Amino acid sequence: MNSPQPNPLQLNSPHSNSPQSILEHTFGYTHFRGSQQEIIDTVVGGDDALVLMPTGGGKSLCYQIPALAREGCGVVISPLIALMQDQVEALRAAGVRAAFLNSSLPPEQAQQIEQALLGEQLDLLYLAPERLLQPRTLDLLHRVPLSLFAIDEAHCVSQWGHDFRADYLHLNCLHEQFPSVPRIALTATADRRTRAEITQRLDLSEARHFVSSFDRPNIRYRIAQKDNPRRQLLDFIRNGHQDHSGIVYCLSRNKVESTADWLCQQGFNALPYHAGLPADLRAEHQRRFLREDGVIVVATIAFGMGIDKPDVRFVAHLDLPKSIEAYYQETGRAGRDGDPATALLLYGLEDVVKLGQMAANSEGSEEHRRQERSRLNAMLGLCEITSCRRQALLRYFAEELPEACGNCDTCLEPPQTWDGTEATAKLLSCVYRTGQRFGASHVIDVLRGSRSEKVLKFGHDQLSTYGIGADRSTAEWRGILRQLVVRGYLEVNSEAFGALQLTEACRPLLRGEEQIELRKLPAPARRAESGASRAAADIAPEHAPLWEALRACRKQLADEKGVPPYVVFHDATLREMLAARPQTEEALLSISGVGDSKLQRFGDAFLAVLRDFPH
Ligand code: ADP
Ligand code: ZN
């Protein structure tokens, strides 16, 4: 049998455009992750999709591959102008004909891109929503074949969220004006309300919905009582995150500045970032964070939205986030590349007081303030629980994790607890006896036998539960209560003035068939990170010279091209090179993350390094 002639130009020749082949040749990966394949098949087949996937889940491929597999140019709508350039650069490095149009481009360049679009020379075009909605842009789009519309950060259509963009509301015009072009909307925002809003406002009720788990298994959650926060932070970084990129969040600008200064004195490459700094300095610090290795940004929450850096290895909170949503979002900036990362939160009583005051004094209605307060309480509950943090976190987003995760502080070093069964039974029955219509303060007043006006008015001094909890302070009861809320035994009904209500889960407790362990308050101070739990990303000493050489090679190529190092290759790809030590182009191509285009561009440089270190 004749074997086909080897094709010397094979690397350049257009390969089959099946999703699998694009995944392998263009992106250098072998397998689809999670529901990527189903999503891609849906869009390639011309149907609409709504995709809810956590940060780092791999949303980009869900529209990039269909855009390449289908005829025409794919239009990506993204609110984050700052990100477009990096995304386009990363695509170009993979050999994809991508471009962006936004207000930052000089007119000549914009015109060139429009010409490329009209000449059908683009696979993907990134647009800000306001640009897309200009009649001129819509007109342009009507003149070329389009493969799809991808609506990224689709939660921006939600008026309840903090990222609301009025322009997103008009995106339903795409459906009307381009009925035959499939749309895929994507977001990492988990809650049902946002999802319902996206569906309704973007006309996606006919679309297939893909809801992934919001678990981020590679992020290790650690929450500790504040003891000596600077010392705790230092221990944490030195034990497992030395030389890593990270973000440290503080509440105030002053604290951002002083913490960054202090980290620099300790020998770290730390940069401050907050809204009070001049715009060009902020941009410079953001740029250095993206381009240089091992930079720590100390920031207020002003920093983050629009940071797409995949290799952030830790996020540390020196102040308590306002809500679990905020905590999840901020910690979610760690480990997008799937490698081990840690989220450390240090909290203390002062945070609780400060945030409570902020919630109480915030603008808006009484209802709004109460909701802020209850979000804060849920966040505190997460801090205080003794069971798996990840389970509680996911439960907050209505997701059940069947088993404890083994990768959070409470799983790794079970905290000190006490048998709270009796106290819990008292509290739950008091909630029940008062009719599940009252908030925490009143229930605790009844428990402690207060003669407050409200207690007397409702005759609650006549209840069997009146005064049965006089042995504990209000603060202790609040601590117990918060733990019960976050563990799902009690709900705070925000539609009924914060009334506490029993859930199904508490039946066995009320019947005395279940024991409950509560966290001792205050939790004992503990050293942050131990050697045993060092991030797996760490490199064995004998491999260090090659590792450093690979990183230097990546940095040099990145600098030459003016892109961040991860646009060349991710850490995971370098680590695979380290383990496999490929010596030929073929062997290099089998490394995950090395596709045809990257082999061509960067292959020789990396092979030269690798050949200096044979197996
Ligand atoms: P998201 O937009 O959901 O936050 P990204 O699309 O940026 O996530 O993907 C996160 C990381 O996972 C990226 O580094 C991406 O290259 C990588 N990735 C995505 N899909 C795959 C896959 N099928 N195989 C290997 N790596 C993948
Ligand atoms: Zn756990």
From TrEMBL:
Among its keywords, does the record have NADP? no
Task: Write the record's keywords in alphabetical order, separated by commas.
Answer: ATP-binding, DNA damage, DNA recombination, DNA repair, DNA-binding, Helicase, Hydrolase, Isomerase, Metal-binding, Nucleotide-binding, Zinc
Q: Which Pfam families match?
A: DEAD, Helicase_C, HRDC, RecQ_Zn_bind, RQC
Using the UniProt annotation, give all residue ranges assigned to the region (Disordered). Answer: 1-22
Q: What is its EC number?
A: 5.6.2.4
Task: Give all residue intervals belonging to the Helicase ATP-binding domain.
Answer: 40-208
Top-level class of the enzyme under EC nomenclature: isomerase
- Mind listing the GO molecular function terms for this protein? helicase activity
Catalytic activity reported: Couples ATP hydrolysis with the unwinding of duplex DNA by translocating in the 3'-5' direction
Tell me the ranges covered by the Helicase C-terminal domain, including all copies: 229-376
Which superkingdom is the protein from? Answer: Bacteria
**Statement: the UniProt record of this protein carries the keyword Iron:** no
Q: Which cofactor does it need?
A: Zn(2+); Mg(2+)
InterPro entries attached to this UniProt entry: DEAD/DEAH_box_helicase_dom, DNA_helicase_ATP-dep_RecQ, DNA_helicase_ATP-dep_RecQ_bac, Helicase_ATP-bd, Helicase_C-like, HRDC-like_sf, HRDC_dom, HRDC_dom_sf
Occurrences of domain HRDC (ranges): 540-615
Query: What's the family?
Result: Belongs to the helicase family. RecQ subfamily.
Q: What is the protein name given in its UniProt record?
A: DNA helicase RecQ
